[in-house]
Amino acid sequence: MAMKLVVIGAGMASGRAMEHLLEANDEIYDITLFGAEPRGNYNRIMLSPVLSGEKQFEEIVTHDADWYESHGVTCRFGELVTGIDRMRKVVISEKGETPYDKLLIATGSSPFIIPVPGRDLDGVLAYRDLGDVNRMIGYAERPGAKAVVIGGGLLGLEAAAGLSMRGMEVTVVHLMGHLMERQLDASAGYLLQRELENRGIRVLCGANTKEIVGEGKVEAVHLEDGTVLAADMVVMAVGIRPNFGLAQAAGLKYNRGLLVNDEMKTDDPEVFAIGECVEHAGSCYGLVAPLYDMARVAARNMLGFHERFEPVEISTKLKVTGVDLFSAGDFAEGGGREEIVYRDATQGIYKRLVIRDNRIIGVVMYGDTSDGAWFLQKLKDKEDISEIRDVLIFGPGFAAGADADPMAAVAALPDEAEICGCNGVSKGTIIAAIEAGATSLDAVKAVTKASTSCGTCAGLTEQVVALTLGDDFVLPQAAGMCKCTDHSHDDVRRMIVAQALKSIPAVMQAMGWKSSGGCASCRPALNYYLLCAWPDDYRDHGQSRFINERVHANIQKDGTYSVVPRMWGGITTPQELRAIADAAEKFNVPTVKVTGGQRIDLLGVRKEDLPAIWSDLNDAGMVSGHAYAKGLRTVKTCVGSEHCRFGTQDSTGLGIKLEKALWGAWSPHKFKLAVSGCPRNCAEATCKDFGVVCVDSGYQLHVGGAAGMDVRQTDLLAQVETEEEAIEYCAAFYQLYRENAQYLHRPYKWIAKVGLDWVKARVVEDADSRKALADRFFHAQRIFQKDPWAARVAGTDSHEYRPLADLTQVAAE
Amino acid sequence: MTTAIDIGALEDIPRQAARLVKTHFGCIAVFRTAEDKVFALDDACPHKGGPLSNGIQHGEQVTCPLHNWVFDLNTGQAQGADEGAVRTYPVRVEAGRILLDRAALAPQVAAE
């Protein structure tokens, strides 16, 4: 007589297990199948094509009524199982008790609903089963309907793409910095985001949902940063949780999931479990391949074998038509690992292999995934690839000869892209000149004037000429930013603007970075270039800043910090001095020093004390002096006409005005000012980055001084008559420097490169240019001129200042 | 007695950042990479004692903020021409919690 097998859960895993069982022997078991949904087993991972309208539900059904009937499976769909009595070996459901000899639990998982206010509103959906899909389609049929998808993982993006194909206006809200962060690195995530945005899907990364609002039904989603997204429907696709409440109530052992051994048995030898509800060797699984393996192992062991489940490397593909994306294995970077990266910016292709000990351990591919299976096989086989390493990245068909093109980014530029900003020369102009007979770089420069002014576009001009001339041209060697790229600082800055690149991963992808995450040299430079180019859009990346700018204080040799409050123009008050003295005593500051920039330095403050000491200084009206910043430092002044018998103008007053205008700005390197009240120059203005020397008839403006490793006297930029002009010239000069200088070049180095005449042409001789520069500077100041200390006192970046844990109270053993 | 100590949630450390765990024997820097891997190392560069937790993280490496020595977070070995190493500690993430091996609280005995 056949034994009784009861299966709880009619999903993909149990469907596969029954197939294996019945194929091997259909006489051993009488099977009863319970399913919560009022239908049988279907291919859940193909729900996305149903949502997008590319498939009908009937096409994804794996087991229909005929199959169950012909295989003698008793179906109890839509009937809720309420308990398992393991003593009596019965399953208890709404309609009574069903006895079993063996029990297979395959209860799957439940969508995780983030606990935000409004999650219970009508219109908040999960994406799990056909019912969810049908509800989503119902919303999508309303004209002009808007959807917000919370979660930019596999499931969320498939939902977003499907809803978008159905005509909805879709926004994806993703907590992490890039999409599908569990499967993709930042570069591939960026390409994916760009593709989705091209399809009209709005993507917000690093976005935290605060609440869902509406009267009875969804009307909008509010984010932590204040953004409000109108919505008729919200899809929560942030993750899944193993669903094992029944097993838990029946006293089976569980942890994150229902615990099973290698044979897929729970701690009750008569009870097997498979699928998303289980935890095996510390892991829970949500992808189909391992679940099918579990199903096979469980089926075999129910037939009396002793097979073991061995997890293998899983690969992922996103099921969005037209998006080719593949990832497998461990693709984190780091020491002991090497990587081979192939990028083709024109085609939007990115491939990355992570290699350890001559074996592939991780694969990420975007745009062209045709070789994914080939790489995955090598990964699973742990094949030694040292012999074919040189051509490995090109895949099995490498003979076809695709070669990495270092000039792909330039080739991708449209003809109207500006190459030479000084002379208004576009890529198309250069190509036209070549077609008209210019056959060398010099000839092109002579005809078009490209790269004949400031010279920062020389590299790009050469590359356009090289691309157009082809083999007739030998590209001169240009110095790369760092070992991560062959592109120069100037080229990178230009491409950021020309291609509207707005994140570090975007730059690295578009310009073919050779490392996946950059280094301590290029990341701070990129962070600055992006922040300067896109003050409104770019989100400052603290982890790409040197520690001083990250925590707004100067690190000292012993790991303590120094604190320098701003003293506008070097002027202070008894009340400020008292507050500084009180703070120094309260926080046991070991050294108090007067700086060369006319302010007071508190040295030796513990990192943990920084927010507290800033709070005290803030209370006395003082803000950060940015003594740590690649940005405006101090404005040194003399006492000027207010007190000095030689003073010609109010140098102190102008210094304070300049400092109030410029403070808070970031620049390629530090920027120091001074204002002297007469040519005796007591404020030493002629060795500053920007110095003002007051004279009877007005103000002499000097630029490009230095008094560090190099000592250099300033050059005269211009003489102006009013304070207002002095401030506008200063802002324009600073902005020109901010927009053009290489990171870590002080103004004097930059001027040596571009020439003082070039600077004068833009700041002095052309009033419109000067005004535009100053306008751009003050626009950026509206964003950056905020006291970073006050923000941190209020809680910004609190993780920087507090230890994660204090174990000094915990005993060792 | 369990062998691991729950020192906090993975989300308590931003990506590419590090935070400190204080012990009787000094501070341990706990790093979270861009790919959500977690590493624990002594927070002192063997060169001049620089706090590695304050460095810039790139890939599975960190650059010391004082003199730019670069360390592999997996092994604690200095990279490039520099020679030296920092001690590493077993640490793992389970269910979103960071678990540090209790051995981190044991005193160091100099090995010969």
Automatic annotation (TrEMBL), chain A:
GO terms for biological process: nitrate assimilation. Residues 629-767 form the Nitrite/sulphite reductase 4Fe-4S domain. InterPro entries: BFD-like_2Fe2S-bd_dom, BFD-like_2Fe2S-bd_dom_sf, FAD/NAD-bd_sf, FAD/NAD-binding_dom, FAD/NAD-linked_Rdtase_dimer_sf, NasD-like, NiRdtase/SiRdtase_haem-b_fer, Nit/Sulf_reduc_fer-like_dom_sf. Its cofactor is siroheme; [2Fe-2S] cluster; FAD; [4Fe-4S] cluster. The keyword Isomerase does not apply. The keyword Chloroplast does not apply. It comes from the Bacteria. Pathway: Nitrogen metabolism; nitrate reduction (assimilation). Residues 3-278 form the FAD/NAD(P)-binding domain. Residues 315-382 form the NADH-rubredoxin oxidoreductase C-terminal domain. This is FAD-dependent oxidoreductase. It comes from Oceanomicrobium pacificus.
Automatic annotation (TrEMBL), chain B:
Residues 5-100 form the Rieske domain. The keyword rRNA-binding does not apply. PANTHER family: 3-PHENYLPROPIONATE_CINNAMIC ACID DIOXYGENASE FERREDOXIN SUBUNIT (PTHR21496:SF23), FERREDOXIN-RELATED (PTHR21496). One of its GO terms (molecular function) is metal ion binding. Transmembrane segments: none annotated. Keywords: 2Fe-2S, Iron, Iron-sulfur, Metal-binding, Nitrate assimilation, Oxidoreductase. SUPFAM superfamilies: ISP domain. This is Nitrite reductase small subunit NirD. One of its GO terms (biological process) is nitrate assimilation.
